[in-house]
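Tutorial, part two.
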Amino acid sequence: LRVAAEISGEPTLTSLYIRGEDVHMAMAMRMTGKPASQVTKEERKKAKAVNFGFLYGMGARKFVSTAWDNYGVKVTLEEAEAFRTSFFQQFPKLLIWHSKQRRLAHKYHRVQSPLGRIRHLPDIVSPDTGVMREAERQAINSPVQAMASDLCLLSLVLLDRAFRKRGLRAAPIGTVHDAINFEVPLDELET
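Running the prediction step on this input gives:
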């Protein structure tokens, strides 16, 4: 979400991060009309599903199954449609960015991350609407995921250099999505 805020230039999403606010709580408050103190854990979980689902151009129908499969949250189609509307009311510039990404994909059959990583999208010209729509979703998703991955890998290199400079034996050993795994001797764990 943080990378998408930066790439898309969405001002509301960006300002939530600048102020250090919980983006999922902000969406839960919008969805429920409740203050943060009254939002339940389940409502925040639903908001998290909303944020990650609709960020990448998911439709309401797909959201119903994704919310259950990925978050264990039951949502009706009517709720999903209302959540989608609420999401884009909260973050309207994302719709503009989605359209731009789709246009780029249709024009060039690829998209590019801010650091230059290219995602080829040959299915963007598929006569099958479902296949073509999936390529459009990838046009939105790929630059964000690529940038997040590149930042994580850069962090891994910088951390390794910092550890070596301090004479530590601890070492980053790999990444999984947006996390860096380390191998750390017990005597260096606190450091």
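The chain has a mean pLDDT of 94. In part three we will examine how such features are distributed along the chain.
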